[in-house]
Amino acid sequence: MPINEVFPNPTVKQVHFQIQFPNLFFIENKIGDFQMKIMEKFPESALIFKRGLVVALNPDKIEDFPKVPQEEGTKLWQFSNPLGYTMNVSSNFLGIASTSHKTYSNQQSAIRQSLS
Q: How many domains would you assign to the chain?
């Protein structure tokens, strides 16, 4: 069913979809094969290390926070394309994010808006 309604001021800026699963430690060994399979649609790639961060507004209460282990961080492989789609892969999830929404901007809406 085609969607003809176009919203000039969309409230949705990004859409995220994520599948979570138990830690699969072999993913790091298979990520190269996975990248080769999706490289045509997701040509840009990056390796990201995520770490936790504690921000304390009252330095006197810093001892009340649990100690954050000093680890290297969580590895996150990120694949993206110029159309606004990003795929994130980690040892325990696969996520897809999109900043491209066909119902918010399309050729017919641009013509309508220029005629108004």
A: 1
- 32-83: per-residue pLDDT in tens? 999 999 999 999 999 999 887 777 777 776 666 666 565 667 899 999 999 8
Per-residue CA distances from 84 to 50, 53, 98 (Å): 22, 28, 6
Examine residue 3 and state whether it is found in any structural domain, yes or no.
no
Q: What is the mean pLDDT of residues 8-14?
A: 75
Is residue 111 included in any domain, yes or no?
yes
Residue 20's SS3 state is strand
- Residue 73 and residue 28: Cα distance in Å, rounded? 14
Which tokens in the block code for residue 18?
């994520």
Do 99 and 10 touch, CB atoms closer than 8 A? Answer: no
State how far the Cα of 40 lies from the Cα of 81, in Å rounded to an integer: 9
Angstrom distance (rounded) from CA 115 to CA 44: 37
- Whether 78 contacts 48, CB under 8 Å: yes
